[in-house]
């Protein structure tokens, strides 16, 4: 297997952290987004027809894209440790919180960065006002997540899960638009310290 990867991008990192938690080694193939390698004719024709990373290439030559779909594939082939939940209720909570943090934090960060950064000037039809609006929403989104963490250790409950990976990636990536975790959000800061200390966070 091969994972088409971009070291600095958040979605490939989500897969790398997931794999590290599972103890699974996969060959990484670097794709340079800045050089538009993900938009090359060869990449689109043979790897991912939407020109995205990450993309997983299986041994039979087929491909799986979208970071959460790739994580689900590895959850199925190696269930332990369970990162998508242990029972029906926990699985639903993990799914709910993964979607919530992706939409409310990662989505804001991505819009803020893609629409205001010089890096994306040649890659995005930028609408700077949309980017600034999304950046302005992040403090209230951090406060929302801080409140959610008042009575539990991890994002979806008592157990570390893919929801924590998704949230950590979004919170960490917020630095590109000037947002960092601070003592203003003590529950968020406590959680962030815990998940960032896991060896997988360095993947």
How would you describe the overall organization of this protein?
- The protein has two domains: 76 residues, Glutaredoxin; 115 residues, Glutathione S-transferase Yfyf (Class Pi), Chain A, domain 2 (Up-down Bundle), CATH 1.20.1050.10.
- It has a four-stranded mixed beta sheet with strand order 2-1-3-4, covered by helices on one side.
- It is 51% helix and 7% strand.
- The chain is α+β, with helices and mostly antiparallel strands.
- The mean pLDDT is 94.
Question: Which key terms come to mind for this protein?
Answer:
globular, 4-stranded mixed beta sheet, Glutaredoxin, 7% strand, single chain, Glutathione S-transferase Yfyf (Class Pi), Chain A, domain 2, alpha+beta, 203 residues
Order of helices and strands: EHEHEEHHHHH
**Terminus-to-terminus distance:** 18 Å
User: In DSSP terms, counting alpha (H) and pi (I) runs of 4 or more, how many helices?
Assistant: 7
Radius of gyration: 17 Å
Shape: globular
In short:
With 203 residues, the chain is of the alpha+beta class. It is 51% helix and 7% strand.
Topology:
Layout: E1 2-5, H1 10-22, E2 27-30, H2 41-46, E3 55-57, E4 63-65, H3 67-77, H4 88-116, H5 128-148, H6 162-173, H7 186-196
Parallel strand pairs: 1-2
Antiparallel strand pairs: 1-3, 3-4
Helix pairs in contact: 1-3, 1-6, 4-5, 4-6, 5-7
């Amino acid at each position: 297997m091969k994972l088409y990867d971009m070291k600095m991008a958040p979605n490939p990192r989500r897969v790398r952290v997931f794999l590290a938690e599972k103890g699974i080694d996969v060959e990484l193939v670097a794709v340079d987004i800045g050089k538009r390698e993900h938009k090359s004719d060869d990449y689109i024709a043979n790897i991912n027809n939407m020109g995205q990373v990450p993309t997983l290439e299986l041994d039979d030559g087929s491909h799986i894209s979208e970071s959460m779909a790739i994580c689900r594939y590895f959850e199925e082939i190696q269930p332990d440790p369970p990162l998508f939940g242990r029972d029906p209720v926990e699985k639903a909570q993990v799914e709910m919180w993964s979607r919530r943090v992706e939409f409310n934090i990662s989505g804001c960060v991505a819009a803020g960065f893609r629409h205001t950064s010089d890096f994306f000037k040649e890659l995005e039809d930028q609408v700077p006002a949309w980017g600034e609006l999304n950046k302005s929403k992040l403090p209230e989104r951090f406060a929302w997540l801080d409140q959610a963490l008042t009575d539990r250790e991890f994002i979806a409950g008592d157990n570390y899960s893919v929801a924590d990976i998704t949230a950590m990636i979004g919170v960490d990536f917020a630095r590109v638009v000037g947002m960092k975790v601070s003592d203003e959000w003590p529950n968020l800061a406590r959680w962030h310290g815990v998940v960032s200390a896991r060896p997988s966070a360095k993947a």
